[in-house]
Design goal:
2 domains, four-stranded antiparallel sheet
Length: 118
């Protein structure tokens, strides 16, 4: 990994990520930037949304894409707000429910029957 990515995190931009040809380095750049910021800056597109979360995706080439599902913690923080988390998921998933289920090692149909939210 290029040293500047670690030493000069502030230089990681959407353009720098798009210009990176190494898929693993690109993914690291997104993690260092944070998926929240990457999405907020317009790096990914909302492809699905339901009561379980929002599925975000960015495609570069036919076989190269990044995806994350944004979920909201059911347990409120002391100030009453709820934290949002971005969980990286395989880019071939089509729905937020499918993506959230995948994070638990489940299929969307089985996850839909769960009632406990944490």
């Amino acid at each position: 990994m290029p040293r500047w990515i670690i030493e000069h995190r502030d230089r990681i931009t959407l353009a720098a990520i798009d210009e990176q040809v190494d898929v693993q380095v690109r993914r690291c750049m997104i993690e260092i930037m944070t998926p929240e910021r990457y999405v907020a800056l317009g790096g990914a597109t909302c492809v699905a949304e339901d009561e379980t979360g929002i599925l975000w995706r960015r495609n570069w080439l036919a076989a190269d894409a990044w995806a994350a599902v944004e979920v909201v913690n059911a347990t409120p923080e002391p100030d009453g707000t709820r934290r949002h988390f971005f969980l990286q998921v395989p880019a071939n998933l089509r729905t937020a429910r499918e993506a959230v289920a995948w994070t638990y090692g489940m299929r969307a149909e089985a996850y839909a029957h769960l009632v406990l939210r944490t």
